[in-house]
Amino acid sequence: MTARDNLAAIQAIEKRLKCTCGCNLDIYTCRTTDFTCSVSPALHQQVLARYEAGQSGEQIVAAFVAEHGPAILMAPPRRGFNLVAYFLPSVVVVIAGVLLTLALRRWTRLAGDRPAVAPAAGPPASPAELERLRHELERIDA
Q1: CA–CA distance from 47 to each of 29, 37, 62, 65, 90 (Å)?
Q2: How many CB atoms lie within 10 A of CB 124?
Q3: Which helix (H) or strand (E) holds 12?
Q4: What is the distance between the alpha carbons of residues 30 and 104, in angstroms, rounded to a whole number?
Q5: CA of 22: how far to CAs of 37, 69, 70, 81, 117, in Å?
Q6: Quick check: 49 and 59 in contact, CB under 8 A?
Q7: Which of 28, 119, 127, 139 could form a disulfide with 14 if both were Cys (CB 3.0 to 4.6 A apart)?
Q8: Beta bridge pairs of residue 18
Q9: What's the start-to-end Cα distance of the chain, in Å?
Q10: Helix, coil or strand: residue 73
Q11: Is the separation of the CB atoms in 30 and 23 below 8 Å?
């Protein structure tokens, strides 16, 4: 490991590119945290070789995309249909918030408009039942 392995420019390039070992980490994170990975050091050497050959960060990224396809990028490019991936989650959250607010307002309005429901009355008590209830209450008070 040399000082050039951790140059800020190299790190910035490697953080834009996904390691192809299947870990779904960027090349820099994979090579510095997973020491059993044999893929990320090889990708790192390719980045270093291109950097030392004088290629810019954009040229290196473009070369990796040409070789591996756009799946090598950590984030999809911000153009065309990929813009949906950037904006759709925010739009969905806003729409859900508006719908929830409208539903809650409607439910509370409907709940406020309803009259309070009186408990259901059973059949009227007979005189014998009322007399028995009066005796039971007197016994409790005594």
Answers
A1: 14, 17, 12, 13, 35
A2: 7
A3: helix 8-14
A4: 47
A5: 10, 15, 15, 25, 62
A6: no
A7: 28
A8: 26
A9: 95
A10: strand
A11: yes
Q: b vs e for 61-78, b when ≥16 Cβ sit within 10 Å of the residue's Cβ?
A: beebeeeeeeebbeeeee
- Per-residue pLDDT of the chain (142 residues), as tens digits, is 666 777 899 999 999 999 999 898 999 999 989 888 989 999 999 999 999 999 999 999 999 999 998 889 988 777 777 778 778 889 999 999 999 999 999 888 877 766 666 666 778 889 999 999 999 999 998 7
State how far the Cα of 42 lies from the Cα of 84, in Å rounded to an integer: 33
Rounded to 5°, angle at Cα 16 from 13 and 21? 105
**Residues found in the chain:** 142
**Token pair recorded at residue 6:** 């951790």
At 56, give phi and psi (nearest 5°). -80, 170
